[in-house]
Description:
Blueprint: E1 2-8, H1 10-25, H2 30-54, E2 62-67, E3 71-73, E4 78-86, E5 92-98, E6 111-115, E7 120-127, E8 133-137, E9 140-145, E10 151-158, E11 161-166, H3 169-180, E12 199-206, H4 218-224, E13 228-234, E14 239-245, E15 253-254, E16 257-258, H5 259-276, E17 280-286, E18 290-297, H6 302-311, H7 322-332, E19 338-342, H8 348-364, E20 366-372, H9 375-382, H10 388-413, E21 417-421, H11 426-440
Parallel strand pairs: 3-11, 14-17, 14-19, 19-20, 20-21
Antiparallel strand pairs: 1-10, 2-4, 4-7, 5-6, 5-9, 8-11, 9-10, 12-13, 15-16, 17-18
Amino acid sequence: MTFKAIYLRNRFYYGLALLIVLFLLGHFWHLFFVLGWVGFAVFLSLVVIDLMMLFPRRKRILTGSRKLPERFSNGDVNQVSVDIENFYPFKCGLEVIEELPDQFQIRDFYRHKQLNPGEAWSFTYALTPVERGEYHFGHLNAFIHTRQGFLGRRIRLAHPAKVKVYPSFIQMRKFEIMAISDRLSEVGIKKVRKFGHQMEFDQIREYIKGDDIRTINWKATARRDQLMVNQYQDEKSQQIFSLIDMGRTMQMPFNGLTLLDYAINTSLVLSNIAMLKHDKAGLVTFNEKIKCMLPARREPNHLQLIMEMLYNQQTGFLEHNMEALYAIVRKKIPQRSLLILYTNFESLKSARRELPFLRRLAASHLLLVVFFENLEVGKLILNEANDLEDIYRQTIAEKFMFDKKIIVKELERNGIHAILSSPGKLTVATMNKYLEFKARGLI
Length: 443
């Protein structure tokens, strides 16, 4: 805690103005001149008392701290707490002004309270970042004044600090907890019936009422003289790669976040769930060239590596290079894997332009293309048309939405799985598709 400055409060200026008026009136009437000198003596005494009270000899007068999380979760509400304790022997007024990072564009943060001697004050405030990267907090400033309120003292309670904003690990943990407790259906994840036995053999165990009779092992039953069944588990160690397009089409915003942020948050959740299901998660990010490549693994620190890799990825202003993506996949991913490509097609023409490379990827791997609905265009269709211009806008909007559906059909016709989703429902839609692939044994 370091002393910053003395500052003059409004009461000081009001008192000074009153004295000046009294002295001016003293030229016309002697009584006002006497009142002016008396007032000046009282005013000066109160200022000196204020000064002595605010700057006592004791070193410990006001303590405080700002408690920041180790990291912020992008797109989520993050709590910051402030603790202050008053060691002045008198009741004082306290005003707190926080210097928040520039990314929040908040310049009116203000809290105030009257603190009794020895009283502690704690409060929390919430911040919701919408950009990944480093956020720099300034000083936590406390402004103290006495009951007289002529002078004030400014103290810096907390020094500048830096916090990194990562992809939404809060959302990731929520899905993780629900997956462990088998409650994913609460957030819209469907339970998919398994088709056949595209699973690994686990063990032979005794028959329990309700087991599928098709799993009865007749040889073991004959040996043990009681019904025995084969138990299976989902195939493990399958490779799941998130291919994230960082071209200019992913810069489009929705509810404060870009489409890239929605794709990154979803890929983080999916990577975590895949590793919980004993699969391996990998990552490729690209725009006009390959930005990063992380091999598919399932190690204790692998999720942290994915998060560190994603934390500072940014969109570019050039078109994505699907040819470079195909080249890196062919070279670095020889084993058949599930490739989840997060991208955004602006038109049917642009989708058809990428089809040759997508077909090549789908020939060697299970390819899922995830792209986005434009909800703002959808709103135009629902609006009432009042004139010819409105009719024209609605016609263009309907064509745009229809083209998106045609893209899905075009991809599926070429053996490529596709998801057309709104940004807010992207995670649930992608998770459902992944679990469906697992149940059907397609990977």
